[in-house]
Amino acid sequence: MPGNDRFSSREFHPGVRRMCPSAPLTALKAPPMMSHVPELPEVETIRRGLERHLPGRRIRRAEVRAPQLVARPDWESFVIELAGRTFRTPRRVGKTLILDLDSGTLLVHLGMTGQLLFQDPAQALPGSSVGGGRDPHAHILLHHTDGTCLCYRDIRKFGKWRLYANHEAPTCPELSCLGPDPLTPDFVLEGFASALRRTTRHIKAVLLDQSVVAGLGNIYVDETLHRCGLRPTRRANKLSAREVRGLFEGIPGVLKEALERRGTTFSDYRDAEGNSGQNGPALRVYGRHGQPCPGCGQELRRTTVAGRTSSWCAKCQK
Hints:
Layout lengths: L39 H14 L5 E6 L5 E3 L2 H8 L8 E3 L2 E5 L4 E5 L4 E6 L18 E7 L4 E6 L5 E5 L8 H4 L12 H9 L5 H6 L9 H11 L12 H20 L40 E5 L2 E5 L6
Parallel strand pairs: 2-9
Antiparallel strand pairs: 1-7, 3-4, 4-5, 5-9, 6-8, 7-8, 10-11
Helix pairs in contact: 1-7, 4-7, 6-7
């Protein structure tokens, strides 16, 4: 996907100073069970799993059990157009999975509880539950000619599937509105700093804005702000050049560490093979308000910013 013009510079400054000292992961109490929209590390983990299974596989038929999940085209056309298509290497931008086909491009947004699972009939009947019956939460199944299946489960049905022609996908509304992905060369200091200078919003609200940085959500914004020593209520245009650089370098650092642990599972998130993420115990502040800060021991506070609950430390974050 072409880069955003606002972030076209290639300037890079390595290294980031951590504002808050580290603590052993065993010292952190697990956050409470909750649902959250899968963010960049979770979606990228799924993409990597699908990359091992999908390329070269051909769709024999598409089965849609919940038509409201298909946003484009209508679900009947969706079923017809997918028959006979062959998967290429899957991609991702921000929180959106891009499943390229030999003819067409599928965009998948997982919503809050979506799961995209590769199923082998040798292990389980596609679209079935653990007991062998029909899975009530399996809503879209792409059956392949070799008997395997790509199964989409979604308890709350907030996810969306869209099918575009190959040439339409790069400029479609769902992708063209996104800012740079922080794990790609499109994410550069000059553009990031410029975006922050132009707004008086709270820094947390800016980082949650997908047109500024694509892929961040409540979990990793809280974690990044704590690592960088910034309060979520700081005004973006008031950050010093040093703070902006630290934030620019801290964002991919936090995301890469979560990606190494295969994302964060509280209740619903699973990778393409059905495994839970292992990043939950490593979270330092998200969902831990009322507990001691792992950096200084002071009780973590809770604040609402941009309609989202924020956990932060009044001592470590300025």
